Amino acid sequence: MSKRNLWNRSIIILFICSIIFLSSTALASYPKTFTDTQGREITLDESPQRIITRAPDEARIVIALGYGDKLVAGEQATKSCLCPMTFSNTTEGCLECYENIIDGRMPDLPEISTRYDIYFEEIARLEPDLIFCGNLKDAEAFEDKIGCPVVVLGGQGWNFGDEGYFDSIRVAGEALDARDQADELIAFAKGKVEMIESVTKEIDPDDRPKVYFASRGASNAFYDPKEGRDFTRTEPKYDPLTIAGGNNIASEINGSTVNVALEQIIAWNPDFIFISNSNAGNNTGLDFIKNSPELASINAIKEGNVFNCFYPHCRGTPPDRNLFNMMYMAKVMYPEEFEDLDLEKEGNEIFKAFLGVDGVFSEYANYLVWPREYLDSLK
Predict the structure, then answer these.
(1) For residue 240, with 0-12 CB atoms within 10 Å meaning exposed, 13-18 middle and 19 or more buried, which class applies?
(2) Where is the Fe/B12 periplasmic-binding domain (predicted)?
(3) Is residue 91 part of a domain?
(4) H helix or E strand, kind and range, residue 375
(5) Region 80-100: what's the mean pLDDT?
(6) Is the peptide bond before 31 cis (omega within 30 degrees of 0)?
(7) Are residues 327 and 216 in the same domain?
(8) Are residues 215 and 348 in the same domain?
(9) Which domain holds residue 118?
(10) Structural domain tally of the chain?
(11) Which CATH number goes with the domain that contains 264?
(12) Phi/psi zone of residue 356: left (φ > 0), alpha (ψ -120 to 50 degrees), beta?
């Protein structure tokens, strides 16, 4: 190539790069105003560089959209909820994820709140220029005591509708100049939903099994007045179960995370029972329900259709676990229809989309034990 041609090519490349740079600058012009999930107008004077999140769900969105390097602090449970770990001991769980997410900064990420308390002095010291939270009460407190812009996301991680969790992703994309990344993440999640729904929507409603979902597990037996981690607590509106082709027998109840009478569960006579379980290597809840004389008449017990499932909560409602629950429940209830569904492959794809780390689901399955045992039973 002659020197003249090489020079001309260099000029063209420089020109194209300049156009791309100028276009990006125009798209990210400041100040800018947008609306959060609560209809509040938010104005940002410049691109956020120091982000704090009130709960793990908000931190997960920031990371999923590629802004984990801007995350300077989070809620206490962020360390154990994003990469699933033992809450009181971060040497047990998905260690590879924990040590590599957000460029290895997770173990030392400052904690600015707990479930009940917010450390406003620590937050002020960290000088955030943007805070994400999940409700108006926290937003008002942050604005009053810290003064920087506060964006309310919210949205349950199992609500796979445009007005649910996807709306939170869109708003975060607006705040972070990450609209394309937000659209890609939403399209990814919708693709997984469509993968399952394309099969289950063809199933006649009368042929769908009746399902009881013990959303808080059964580690504390039938009733737990202190923490509500009992068999009689359920979610009347749980998208993953419905999309998976199950008839949620509690769906007529108003509200969310409600307790029902044990006698009502027996009267419903579910064909399947799913029990949330995040206790590594511990099937206490599952074994208790399978062997309870009070439940012996239920079809699910008699037919052996009582299964663990992934805990839908973790100081929030983690969308990655709930999206996977949808696929897992579909496979359990319809093994023939989903014979070719590779749960381990799908699980790793889902967790990587939200956390940016490979192999998280495989690590999670090994850590909890029961998912690995289930996957091995399919071979």
Answers:
(1) buried
(2) 50-337
(3) yes
(4) helix 370-377
(5) 89
(6) yes
(7) yes
(8) yes
(9) 33-178
(10) 2
(11) 3.40.50.1980
(12) left
128-140 average pLDDT score:
97
**Cα of 18 vs its chain's centroid, Å:** 38
Q: Contact at 8 Å (CB) between 266 and 294?
A: yes
Q: Are residues 168 and 195 in the same domain?
A: no
Q: What is the pLDDT of residues 312-336, one digit of tens each?
A: 999 999 999 999 999 999 999 999 9
Cβ–Cβ < 8 Å for 320, 351: yes
Q: Specify which residues 90 forms β-bridges with.
A: none
CB 215 within 8 A of CB 276: yes
Same domain, 94 and 230: no
SS3 label, residue 159: coil
List pLDDT tens digits, range 239-281.
999 999 999 999 999 988 999 999 999 999 999 999 999 989 8
Q: Kind of pairing, strands 41-44 and 32-35?
A: antiparallel
pLDDT for 88 equals 76
* Structural domain includes residue 16: no
| C-beta of residue 173 within 8 angstroms of C-beta of residue 183 | yes
Within this chain, do residues 204 and 316 fall inside the same structural domain, yes or no? yes
